[in-house]
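Friendly challenge for the regulars: who can give me the structure tokens for this chain first? No prize, just bragging rights.
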Amino acid sequence: MPVFPKHFSFALTAFISVLFVACGSGKVQEKTAAVKKDSVLLVKTPIVIGTDSVEEDFRKRIVKVPLGDINGDGTPDTATIYPPRFIRPSDQMVGCLHDSCYCRIRFSCNLPDIYPVIGIGETMGPVGDLNHDGFVELAFVPEWMTSVWHLLSVYGIKNGKWILMGTGDINLNKLWEDPDFLIHRVVRVDDRHFKIISDSLSSESDSLLQTSKTFTFN
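First reply, four minutes later:
Bragging rights claimed.
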């Protein structure tokens, strides 16, 4: 049996060790690549939960709201509320597609859209021509997955565009009790002012209080 010098045995051992590590590294890299590939496939898989797809659910939640004549042309007008799309239609708590929880309001007359209006849906209605400019102001209360405390927003037309005129805090339990809720909460004061009547909790108890804030027409 041949006897190799010590330095040759050391070199041979080192070569075998490098070869083993290289082969092992190849396996690790191959496994990592497979994991990355699987991850990409998971991301590309379309999410369809239940019987409705994202688009089917979106179309079902589009709502038309009769407003009366809001631009003074003698023709009754309608608003169409386009809601956000949900990632999972059967579980709204997962969130909105692209983190965009906003509605678009489109009108049957020649008025521009209102966008973005925050919320997954809207309770909306006319509150009268508060500033006597020939256009009816609109009030919105957004719908959400949770909470009964929401924001009431009043929009009006200025220079051909919708502007936010004022906001207040609303408890939805009161909204559901009163079908004329929006009109009762947005009140014209005089030629220059209107007020929004808001809800708040008493600091001494859990009872609801009402406070008003006055806004000036822009």
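The longest helix spans residues 6-44. The two ends are 104 Å apart (CA to CA). Your move, everyone else.
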